[in-house]
Design goal:
The protein is α+β, with helices and mostly antiparallel strands and about 210 residues long. It has one domain: Bira Bifunctional Protein, Domain 2 (BirA Bifunctional Protein, domain 2). Helix content is about 25%, strand content about 35%. Helix 2 crosses helix 4. The chain starts with a strand and ends with a strand.
């Protein structure tokens, strides 16, 4: 997958979606920025910063994704693959349902996905070096460029969702002491039931993981 490099962007996600809509770029393609000023996070929050942190978005054709992957599971799928790559670099982080990277009990990054016609666009922000956005950081010496290159090589093997889910299902137990925002309400995951498609059953209601 080709990677386009930028010194600074308002948002890698917004830039890539705009270029795909204008047909200036097409999947598969990835964007990496050294600094980001108005990055898109969950619930319309911003994810900003620079100086050695990871700000990337990439686009893949829907046809390239494994046939057992529901789009509602995409955030978990892309995030968990990144988590496994970071483990190879010695970073012991875990994935909080559905799209947040955690070091112990502190958030250090997150993932957001959006379907654009026949393409899925995924943005990942990670505080590798230091925090500039009120979240914690890994304080790692991993190069964002090397991390992205390794991640894309791993991603393009497109493991089956069943394989990814079997590992995430075990790790989900760590999420139970946390809450998530569902329809603007803070909801505990203590008694949530994780379904095979990555969704949750909470108090009889099915909640999907697409972000």
């Amino acid at each position: 997958m080709d990677i386009l490099y930028f010194k600074t962007l308002d948002s890698t996600q917004k830039y890539l979606i705009e270029k795909i809509n204008l047909k200036n770029l097409k999947a598969p393609i990835a964007i990496l920025a050294e600094k980001q000023h108005a990055g898109v996070g969950s619930r319309d929050n911003e994810w900003t910063g620079g100086d050695g942190n990871l700000f990337t978005s990439f686009a893949v054709p829907l046809s390239a994704l494994p046939d057992d992957l529901a789009l509602s599971s995409a955030s978990i799928y892309f995030s968990y693959i990144m988590k496994k790559v970071l483990l190879e670099f010695g970073e012991n982080i875990w994935l909080k349902w559905p799209n947040d990277f955690y070091l112990n009990d502190e958030k250090v990054g997150g993932t957001i996905t959006k379907k654009v016609n026949d393409t899925l666009v995924c943005g990942i922000g990670l505080n590798l070096k230091k925090s500039q956005n009120r979240y914690s950081a890994l304080q790692s010496d991993i190069s964002p460029k090397i991390l992205l290159e390794k991640y894309l090589v791993t991603l393009e093997k497109y493991p089956k969702w069943k394989q990814v889910f079997s590992e995430f299902e075990i790790e989900f137990e760590l999420s139970r002491k946390f809450s998530v925002h569902i329809e603007n309400y803070q909801t505990s995951l203590r008694n949530a039931q994780l379904c095979k498609d990555g969704s949750l059953m909470i108090e009889g209601e099915k909640v999907y993981s697409l972000r």
